[in-house]
Amino acid sequence: MNGETLTIRKATFGDLTAALRLGFRDFMRAPRFGLFFGAIYTLGGLALTWFSLILDAGWMVYPLVVGFALIGPFIATGLYEVSRRLENGEPLTWPAVLLVVLAQHKRELGWMAFVSLFVFWVWMYQARTLFVVFFGSNGFATFGAFVTTVLNTPSGWWFLIIGHALGAAISLVMFALTAISIPMLLERDVDFVTAMLTSLRTILASPVVMICWGLFVSGVVFLSAIPAFAGLIISLPVLGHAAWHLYKRLVVPAN
Fold first, then answer.
1. Each residue of 231-247: pLDDT tens digit?
2. 2 lies in a domain?
3. Spatial contact of 92 and 143, defined as CB atoms under 8 Å apart
4. Domain span at residue 14?
5. How confident is the model at residue 72, as a pLDDT?
6. What one-character-per-residue DSSP string does 86-103 give?
7. ∠242-180-241 over CA atoms, to 5°?
8. Is residue 1 one of the residues assigned to a domain?
9. What's the total number of domains in the chain?
10. Which residues are within 8 A (CB) of 131 and not within 5 positions of it... i.e. 6 or more apart?
11. Contact of 135 with 159, CB cutoff 8 Å
12. How many other CB atoms sit within 10 Å of the CB of residue 2?
């Protein structure tokens, strides 16, 4: 689809509700795929949490839980393909969906995976830096000791305030670059820079609506992650399908 002229539509809150409705519809039409990709995301979050605990780095659990959401749009690639096939009436089989996902490492979407992982690394690096600044490099004997210190000391309060401020800035950048770009790369023959710029243009065209969408998605993912990530088995596929439909509503051919 090189050379195709695209139009960026301004988003409305009606677009958000419609995208959610269509996302839930796609999940109900193909629940086995949604549950599969949701389970992968859940197991990934549990593995990262377990890894931090066995390394006696319990303080990493919270930034890991929050930061893990940053790579959610990339993990949802399979869900975008499911929605695309449902939309076009194409066969919906495991080989068809999984082979498309596996083939993305040879396309521009592979670069977006690199961008996602790089931002996640920056997220964790700044969390580690703040931890050393406010608490030193010795760590805590238990996760409970860390929580007590964070909630009951001035150093802990500043750690939370500055950490959340920096985290919000990183999340905003990541959202602006990936809100539209990943489903766009799955469907269209464009380079990843063009896709990221298109995603940014979409945010700038409707900043209030799109930021509300980003806050809503972040809130749902965070709440879904609280019960041992179990809620993500349902919320990830619904939000993933919804993201596809929002992309289709906001980025349309001009001719």
1. 999 999 999 999 999 99
2. no
3. no
4. 10-253
5. 76
6. HHHT----HHHHHHHHHG
7. 20
8. no
9. 1
10. 59, 159
11. yes
12. 8
CA distances from 101 to 81, 98, 112, 203 (A): 8, 5, 13, 26
Instruction: List, for residues 94-105, the tens digit of each pLDDT value.
Output: 998 988 877 776
Q: Is residue 248 part of a domain?
A: yes
Examine residue 5 and state whether it is found in any structural domain, yes or no.
no
Q: Give me the torsion for CA of 64, 65, 70, 74, rounded to 10°.
A: 100
Confidence of residue 5 (pLDDT cuts 50, 70, 90): low
CA atoms within 13 A on the CB side of 207: 3
Tokens of 103: 């083939």
Cβ neighbours around 32 below 10 Å, total? 9
Residue 114, pLDDT above cutoff 70: yes
Q: Report the Cα 96 to chain-centroid distance in Å.
A: 23
Q: How many angstroms separate the Cα of 145 from the Cα of each of 12, 152, 153, 159, 233?
A: 45, 11, 12, 15, 31
Beta-carbon contacts of 242 under 8 Å, excluding residues fewer than 6 positions away, are: 19, 20, 22, 23, 24
Torsion of CA 245, 248, 251, 255, to 10 degrees: -160
User: Residue 254: is its pLDDT beyond 70?
Assistant: no
Q: What percent of the chain has pLDDT over 90?
A: 43
In this structure, which amino acid lies at residue 122? V
Rounded distance, CA 216 to CA 213, Å? 5
DSSP 6: E
